[in-house]
Design goal:
Layout: E1 2-4, E2 11-13, H1 14-29, H2 32-61, H3 65-92, H4 102-117, H5 123-153, H6 157-191
Amino acid sequence: MSTKHANGGHTVNKTTTAKSTTSHKEHATDSRLEEFFHDELKDIYWAENHLVKTLPKMIKAASGEELKHAFSEHLTVTKEHVTRLDKVFDLLGYKAESKKCEAMEGITKEGESIIDDTEDGTATRDAGLIMAGQKVEHYEIATYGALARVANTLGHAEVVKILQSTLAEEKQADASLSQLAESSVNEHAAEETK
């Protein structure tokens, strides 16, 4: 369908304009960036599922009730993050599957070594667990922030909203751990003697 503009008689083919928008969308779906995005979603999906298994160990190893509570709350939130990622995969038409996240595996192994290297029931162990927890949060903050930007570039508006919700919760978890360390745990740890 063609229409004539009053200003200069230029013809615009509306059908062609609509098709070019559609083909741009199809191109984005088939792009290398889309493939990379899908691969990184699998990576964070593995990481979140791994955290669901790791956080109970951190809860058990923590001695302070506030820290146990913080980790318990984050376990609940992490399970919700897995559910959100299931929705993201569904929205994009992908099967929800994971690819081993080497970074998260390394960070959680480091957390396990903190447990092994510190004495049970000490504030020093709790300070180490907070540090390990924040390393996890910082990795997730970086990942969700980057994924949201890529999803935006690819035109996945609903996915962007989901990823940004998770990003905000990861930032809140990091801030809560900082507050806990600064308000009491680090000072108590500093008072512990060998």
